[in-house]
Design a protein that fits this description.
Strand order of the largest sheet of chain A: 4-5-6-9-8-7
Keywords (chains A, B): DNA-binding, Transcription, Transcription regulation
CATH architecture of the largest domain in chain A: 3-Layer(aba) Sandwich
Largest sheet of chain A: 6 strands, antiparallel
Strand content of chain A: 25-35%
Largest interface: A-B, 47 and 47 residues
Shape of chain A: elongated
Oligomer: homodimer
Order of helices and strands of chain A: HHHEEEHHHEHEEHHEHEEE
InterPro entries (chains A, B): Bact_HTH_transcr_reg, Chorismate_lyase_/UTRA_dom_sf, Tscrpt_reg_HTH_GntR, UTRA, WH-like_DNA-bd_sf, WH_DNA-bd_sf
Distance between the termini of chain A: 55 Å
Radius of gyration of chain A: 23 Å
Protein name (chains A, B): GntR family transcriptional regulator
Number of domains of chain A: 2
Number of strands of chain A: 10
CATH class of the largest domain in chain A: Alpha Beta
CATH superfamily of the largest domain in chain A: Chorismate lyase-like
Structural class of chain A: alpha+beta
Pfam families (chains A, B): GntR (PF00392), UTRA (PF07702)
DNA sequence: GAGTGGTCTAGACCACTGT
DNA sequence: CAGTGGTCTAGACCACTCC
């Protein structure tokens, strides 16, 4: 507490938490705050930076410092997997109507812009281990971006890995121009005779890398959720590994675990 | 790229990613870096700060700047809920042996230090809504901290809310001195005739508040996972709402979703 | 053009760490 | 004690936003 910038940060933080400074409110100019606290401008800026790192403040160049508003959230539930499985064998027209993202967000197909990029890569050690194949095995790496037509930033950054030989039986699966595939991944896997038995999702969190912050248009003071989705076939094989980067402040992951009755 | 500190940060970041600077390596002194890049010390510090915010760097006062090492992870799977339910009606001695935390971490009861604090509170709006009770209803607020005996920082910060009247039938449930309750929450609820039907977990991520960083001993440049666990009874009522704060760099949440067979 | 935040300097002094 | 990072100043100039 002996430190000047911490004293300033504390005072402002308290004001924000107590609601004396509400969401969207503008703070006094930095020079003004410096006068009021009897400190230099850089010291005040240090305090503001701390608050920004905590996600409490939003800086707008040339405009001012504002109390951050909470962003609206997008949900992603694990019910989507059963939902997608149920649709995987449905008639084409029904599958084409909506995908799992529409299911989660409640948006229409027309509201969404979808982009896929395919690439053949040699399996890096970390992915090979999960897929249960030797390092260097040929994989199909698929990158997906989905965004609201009205917005600029995508919901998530998705990279999916499939074993090339496993899906090569259906050449249509190797061409990114067939995306978005009606019915999603499970429908794709079904086309080469694979039934997904269970999905495992591993979740951690960390600050975004600069490229991620850039592409997801994340303001400073936010985190990303890192989700690794592993799909198991009915024979126990791992058939898909997907890494998903989600904006932590806009995304709510929901997992429902049903329990056996007594 | 026109900006000096970004150029410096980029160069160091590239070196780290390429492995020219490996985990644990010490960087040259800040004054030395300033010379090398032909910039002032504060400018160099700005660059180092950016890298620290990304979780790439660890500053040690009086020692130096180091490339951050990855911390070992603790897992928390959603299988714990069924596991806990199975034990809820088991004989006392079996219940006393291990709890869900032991199940997740693979540690023994003796390795863990447990602390609980109970408090009666009036339901705040946000919690009341989830519990489906009027605002201001009397709740039992339970705060938990569990840590490794050998370590200082707890695994997580847990705050659980129960409706007072619902559990008052068993006065033992109102006394924190009865914690840790053998068999955990589901066993406690079972003692007042409640069977948990399903558990819903909502996950987001954000930077830690200073108090959280303090208590969990989080270094700068880390995020927290925010998990809200909602337990539903077989009659559809919400019987428990728990908020859990977990260190994002040390925790891996694992959710398994089984799918119905075709 | 007025007002805001963004970057940067050059140097001072303090606090911490390890020998 | 020497070397390191931590804090702070006073002021300069640039870049952006909005009127």
């Amino acid at each position: 507490m002996a430190v000047a910038y911490e004293r300033i940060a504390d005072e402002l933080r308290t004001a924000i938490r107590a609601g004396r400074l509400g969401p969207g409110d503008r703070l006094p100019a930095e020079t003004r705050l410096a006068e009021r606290f009897g400190r230099s401008v850089p010291t005040v800026r240090e305090a503001l930076r701390a608050l920004q790192d905590e996600g409490l403040l939003e800086k707008r160049h040339g405009v001012g410092n504002f109390v951050r508003r909470r962003r609206t959230r997008a949900r992603r539930t694990n019910l989507r997997h059963q939902w997608e499985k149920d649709r995987a064998r449905a008639p084409l027209e029904r599958r084409a109507q909506t995908g799992a993202t529409e299911h989660d967000t409640g948006l229409h197909v027309d509201d969404l812009v979808f982009r896929a990029r395919y690439r053949e890569v040699a399996a890096p050690a970390a992915v090979a281990e999960v897929l249960g194949v030797p390092e260097g095995t040929v994989l199909l790496e698929r990158s997906y971006r989905t965004r609201c037509a009205a917005e600029h930033a995508p919901f998530s950054l998705v990279t999916s890995y499939l074993v090339h030989d496993v899906i090569a039986g259906n050449p249509a699966l190797l061409d990114e121009r067939n995306e978005p595939w009606p019915g999603g991944s499970q429908s794709q896997l079904h086309s080469v005779g694979i039934e997904v038995d269970r999905v495992e999702e591993h979740v951690t969190a960390r600050p975004p890398a600069p490229e991620e912050a850039d592409e997801l248009e994340l303001p400073p003071g936010t985190s990303v959720l890192v989700l690794r989705k592993v799909s198991y076939a009915t024979d126990g094989r791992v058939v898909d590994v997907s890494d998903v980067i989600l904006p932590g402040d806009r995304t709510e992951l929901v997992f429902t675990t049903p329990l056996e009755r007594w």
